[in-house]
Amino acid sequence: MTSGEPSADHRMQQRPRLLRALRMRCPLCGQKPITSGYGELVETCPGCGYDFDQGEEGYYVGALIMNTVAVLLTFVAGFGIGLAVTWPDVPWTALTWILIVAVAVVAIWFYPRSKTLWIWMDLKIHPYSTGERPGR
Fold this sequence. Notes:
Layout: H1 8-22, E1 35-37, E2 40-41, H2 61-86, H3 92-125
């Protein structure tokens, strides 16, 4: 193993953090709830005290980009599957309405999860150790 390669223990620790983020729990400790409303995160985790408000203007722009990508992938996949299944007599009106509903559902469902996933990604880039002050 090279010095830059993550250890197997480190990779195993990251998996639960990702699952916690997808379930809208604190990626560090698993505490729930960390939201105060739809898509609104509390300032600090009630379990471990991690500061979700990083004090940076535009910190959650990455979460917005992730949500946009999820919606675009839903549209492209749905359009491709719809064409493949119904070709050559594609029901364009039905396909359009199905895709509108699908992307709306994905956008609404994924938005709050995109914020917790963004925090998880930030923690992968800037690891938090227990000796540090929660937040930055």
